[in-house]
Request: fold
Amino acid sequence: MRLIIFLLPYLLELLLIIHMFKNNKPFVWLWLIVFLPYLGGLVYLIMEFIPDVIHGNAVHKARKTVSDLVHPDRKIKEAEDLLKRQDTIGNRIRLADLYKENGIFEKAVSLYEESLTGPYKNDFDINLKCVECLFLSGNKEEAKKRYLKLKNDKGLTPSQEIFIYQITDDYEKLKDIFDRDANFEIGYILSKKYKEEENTEAIRNIISEMEYNLKTYKYLQKTDNKIWYKKTKALI
Reply:
């Protein structure tokens, strides 16, 4: 016990030195901590260590997340300012993505199209984002026309696949995915289509299948599937 009490100040000094190097603090702190063991360590603790803990990355990220929720256009403004200072493909795409996320589809399409130059002229992902914006803005026919002109040599991600099946009205494949993966979002998409066709029985069949899966696989109740189930049920 006495040994622990004896070694404790040295262990604390070692921790402060590790913190100093890890966070790229001025080298002068090393001399203060080593040659003024108690006073130097105390000053470092007050001036460097405690402020880092209070205003550290975790706190900064949490504060930034709350700020983004309260001021959703703040990230857009920052991205717009950055693009004005540095007009690069990466900054254009970042701003276009933010426009898309916030439903500003016309501006997003404009930036995506501006990015289709040089080595990115036939970039599939950028083109597909344009198609998605057109689709989400209600211009389905233009989105479908544009997609059919694209060349894709690298395959589709699952989310891209679902989106493309919507554009091309391939509801059979969407139904296959719903039956195979119990993807309730697809069930909702199919149900909206059936509602347009006034096919209430098909919607009820999807709802029954959702209810079966929710009862059989309890973990689904803790996912977004429960929200899609409620939205699907509201269609009847």
